[in-house]
Amino acid sequence: MTRLYHDALYDRDAAVGSYWEASARPLGRATPPLTEDAACDIAVIGAGFTGLTVALTLAEEEGADVAVLEAGTPGWGASGRNGGFCCLGGAKLDYAAMAKRYGLEETRRFFQIQVEAVDLVRSFCKARGIDADLTGEGEILLAHKPGRLAELRAEQAQFRDLFGLDCPLLEPAALAERGLAAADFHGGLLVPPGVGLHPLKYLRGLARAAIDAGVRVYGNSAVLALQRQGGGFSLTTPQGRMTARKVIIATNGYSEEARLPDLAGRLLPVISDIIVTRPLSHNEQAAQGWTDTTMCADSRHLLHYFRLLPDGRFLFGGRGGVSGSPAAGERGRRRLRRDFEHHFPAWRDVETEFSWRGLVCLSKPLVPFVGALEEKGLYAALAYHGNGVSFTAYAGRALAALVAGRQGAADLPAVLRAPLPRFPLPFLRRLYLAGAYGLYGIRDALG
User: Fold this and answer.
1) What is the 3-class SS of 231-256, one letter each residue?
2) What does the alpha-carbon distance between residue 197 and residue 204 come to, in Å, rounded to a whole number?
3) Strand-strand pairing, 314-319 and 241-249
């Protein structure tokens, strides 16, 4: 199996149709396809947040000769089409379960790097002069059913007791006072670290920095085959071939397993849909009572995530689809629009101007992976569980230090360095997902 979903999700020639593409200035740097035989010290597969961060770090801090091979254009995948939530995350495993599996100290190490990762993004944008539309402070988790308030209180206690993080619990009146009034939310938990951003502006800032530092970035250069050659690797693209001593895989949910057999059966890509409205006037925002740009997500297992953008548009995203076909995509958009109108009834007549979808990436243990794969000289960083905007800032730098030999695997939190296991009967992954979604939908409806 090379692709888990319909080919439409992997069509690099098709326009994404995102608001980010429509509003980000062009990259302004050439990323031609690889059309010859070439060589480098380190080849990176994928020009997203992870790939460009690791390439930039290796070039600037180690003086390495780095080439990045991208199947589309930089940021074509998840890095250029996510919701722009730069916040805590990276794992889906509950922290209590994480502490039981990896130990409390290692869990605290993992949590601390999430906090640091948000600061890494902020400081990078400031230092490089990247205007990525940073807005809001923190993320609010909203209870979509009264019964979910108890879960938010338990999460509040967990943040306090395990990590010393104070997360205020907000009643509906307090949410409305902040300018976050919507229908059928029964309170929220404010998790302080985090900021909203324009992901493609940030991505293109990374790409410019990497190219200016000497990294060769080849667009429209999908890796068709990765093979061991002598003491290194050979990477075959449609028009050329790259040889490298070491290879880093940074393809996340867009990893094609027939071409990258070291990842076969180890990842579960999941579809995420987003709609963005036309700009809302101040009067329209006031009519709904939603005027704040803080990032929000609800307590559903099949979560919704949403935020007011700096230009007054409203972004609303969610999970739930198990087919990548265009017809399924249209059904997903209708479902998302229906849910949007339920929570924001004052905006029922506000037009949707942009809609798109993409793939986030899960692992069987529900935690990210950063480190060496079984094949000597082959590395990867991936599986961010829908929260890679900030986490990749840490993962890319950590992987660069590992590849360069400046740190060993033991320097990473144990949460990240455990080997990536395969899913049982991996050809059934979509069926597993459909079954889980059915169960989650029932639980979300019952509260």
Assistant:
1) CEEEEECCCCEEEEEEEEECCHHHCC
2) 13
3) unpaired
Residue 77 has pLDDT above 90, yes or no: yes
User: What is the distance, to the nearest Å, from the Cα of residue 291 to the centroid of all Cα atoms in its chain?
Assistant: 26
Spatial separation of the C-alpha atoms in residues 226 and 223, rounded to whole Å: 7
pTM of the predicted model as reported, rounded to 2 decimal places: 0.97
> Which amino acid type is present at position 333?
R
Strands 232-236 and 241-249: antiparallel
Q: How many residues does the chain have?
A: 447
Report the 10 Å Cβ neighbour count for 353: 13
Question: What tens digit of pLDDT does each residue of 287-338 get?
Answer: 999 999 999 999 999 999 999 999 999 999 998 788 889 999 999 999 999 9
Q: Are 97 and 367 in contact (CB under 8 A)?
A: no
CA torsion 90-92-94-95 (nearest 10°) is: -10
Residue given tokens 């050439």 in the structure block:
30
Q: Across-strand partners of 356?
A: 274
User: Is residue 446 very low, low, confident or very high in pLDDT (cuts 50, 70, 90)?
Assistant: confident
